[in-house]
Amino acid sequence: MIKAKKSLGQNFLIDDKVLKQIVNCLEIKNKNVLEIGPGTGNLTKYILNKKPKKMTVIEKDNDLVDNLKDKFNENLNIINNDVLNIDESSLFNEKVIVFGNLPYNISTEILSKWIINLKNDFWFENLVLMFQKEVADRIIASNNNSSYGRLSILANWKLIIKKICDIRPNSFSPKPKIDSSLLIFTPRKDYYKLKNPKNLEKITRIFFNNRRKMIKKPFNQIFNGDLRILEKLKIDLNLRPQNLNTETYYKLTEEYENLRS
Prior knowledge:
Elements (H helix, E strand, L loop, with lengths): L11 E2 L2 H8 L8 E5 L5 H8 L4 E5 L3 H11 L4 E3 L16 E6 L5 H10 L7 E9 H8 L9 H9 E9 L4 E2 L6 E8 L9 H11 L8 H8 L3 H7 L12 H15 L1
Helix pairs in contact: 1-2, 4-6, 6-10, 7-10
């Protein structure tokens, strides 16, 4: 019997109703599908029943890989590795649909890695991902909300995000102590062009380092009190980081890049 490993943040989704809801989010027949962390293959089975063109899974746990091989035989392309070590864009010649019940302990790291490494051409059609509810709330939050922060700004830069549903702990084995949420990410056709995503990371890190304080100090730290930028972007230095909308942070990053070029 396969047991979940706490060290890998494993919680296996066992609720058939939820599993069906996930695979019915999108049309996957004859599409390339990638599943992150398939675990015991509960979702994998439902995806394969939808007749994808090709299915690839990335699973770090050696015991689970052996179980997947036994259960699905030749129907899966199994990559036995840590998803954080993989460049997914190099795995496929066509765009893929990605499913993932992401380990809670590294879910934000995985999402951030994907966003930062995105080129002008997206390697995926959609991401259908599960997070702990608190993290999902941060991802979809808008400004003037206590959940709004760096992750909201980064995630919404190149992606349109839609919440599908919340999922209760009893849908998993073992039961987590918190609720989960299912989100769908779709590439934006138009997004703010920046030279380097890491600059957006840097700007938001400095601004949100003291999220309860006014933005005067971080602004001066980055721009040395440049009044021209303040007037151009119509920024009030008495505001706090969560009061600025996502577009303002993209514009601030662009100004930062212009100063450095």
